[in-house]
Amino acid sequence: MSDAVRPIVWSGDHLRLLDQRELPARETWVECRSAADVAAAIHGMAVRGAPAIGISAAYGLALDALMGRDYDHAERVLAESRPTAVNLRWALDRMRRLPDHGASALLAEAQAIHVEDLQQNLLMGELGAALLPLKGARVLTHCNTGALATGGHGTALGVIRTAWQQGRIAQVYNTETRPWLQGARLTAWELMREGIPTKLIADGAAAHLMSREKIDWVIVGADRIAANGDTANKIGTYALAIAAKHHGAKFMVVAPSGTFDPSCPDGAHIPIEERTSIELTEYQGRALAPAGMQTWNPVFDVTPAALIDAIVSERGVSLPGEAVRG
Ligand code: MRU
Fold first, then answer.
1. Cis peptide before 24, with omega less than 30 degrees from 0?
2. What number does the ligand 1 atom closest to the CA of 154 have?
3. pLDDT tens digit string along 213-236?
4. Is residue 216 domain-resident?
5. Rounded to the nearest 10 degrees, what angle do helices 86-96 and 71-79 cross at?
6. Is the pLDDT of residue 320 over 90?
7. Does ligand 1 lie within 6 Å of residue 152's CB atom?
8. How high is the pLDDT of residue 325?
9. Is residue 1 part of a domain?
10. For this protein, what is any one GO molecular function term (predicted)?
11. How many domains is the chain built from?
């Protein structure tokens, strides 16, 4: 198991978050001392990835309790920080259900959510890896679903890590994941640290790759899985699923039970976050498009359940036609 990357650290009286906006160039940390600090870190993408957002939000409630601040206000501020990843709401609801909203009870629950996430990822790693060929597997992943996006090990990247440890993987391809470059900056960083063979491709190269080389599985995470199995994940996931279907690659979604939203009947009901146009028109202050360019920047899309061959959670593997087990 590799759990060397830990982006969320409780430090006695405050929360430290590895600033994912700065990777891979610099390893710097953001200090959060209130729920508002955590909400700003989530909205600003210092911490990102559905499970990591949920874990951080839980710590955010504990931070405000330590300062004697109003619970409802802290919960509201955190809930509004990002809309699509249901793990945020799931973690806040779990904290709300505690009989005691004192600081030590809230902190203990946040730490439990954090530890359980790593345990769930290790379990999903085993379940997902077992679906891959015993040797020579060639897989494609999108966005970052690794230790940086979770309590450790990762979801889709956790499956790839476990499969690598089992000797199943011959080659990983990881997309850039425009516009925020989670794949190029974060997934590449995580895989290269462990010597897992990966090649970076432009997002637009994925269908061409599948037409030229056999890809056994496309493996992705999720931000919200509706009751019928429709899955919201990073923008571009839907296009990968269509290409995979056309080229005979299997398509796997890996997510803990906190990513499942049984109250949401299907993908049409999943709120899709739209972010600022600057993410498309600029990179580190340099113009990528003419001044005044109009944009549309949805940062998630919905892959219909019909395009998914396996949904892996810590509770088991759901195959097409089965009830979704999350
Ligand atoms: O906008 P991000 O970087 O938070 O989006 C992350 C993703 O879409 C991940 O694939 C998803 O959260 C699963 S992370 C284990």
1. yes
2. 15
3. 999 999 999 999 999 999 999 999
4. yes
5. 170
6. no
7. no
8. 79
9. no
10. S-methyl-5-thioribose-1-phosphate isomerase activity
11. 2
For ligand 1, atom 10: residue with the closest CA? 221
Residue with tokens 């249901």: 86
pLDDT tens-digit readout, 13-69:
999 999 999 999 999 999 999 999 999 999 999 999 999 999 999 999 999 999 999
- Three-state DSSP class for 9? strand
- Give binding residues as ranges: 48-50, 82, 182, 233-234
**What sign has the CA pseudo-torsion 242, 244, 245, 247?**
positive
Q: State the Cα–Cα distance between residues 231 and 309, nearest whole angstrom.
A: 12
Q: State how far the Cα of 280 lies from the Cα of 179, in Å rounded to an integer.
A: 6
Domain that holds residue 277: 131-318
- Dist CA 277 CA 294 (whole Å): 8
* Residues, the chain: 326
Domain boundary among the residues 121, 144, 171 is at 121
Model confidence at 1: pLDDT above 70: no
Q: What is the CATH number of the domain that holds 180?
A: 3.40.50.10470
Q: Are residues 157 and 278 in the same domain?
A: yes
User: Nearest Cα to 256, choosing from 218, 299, 222?
Assistant: 222
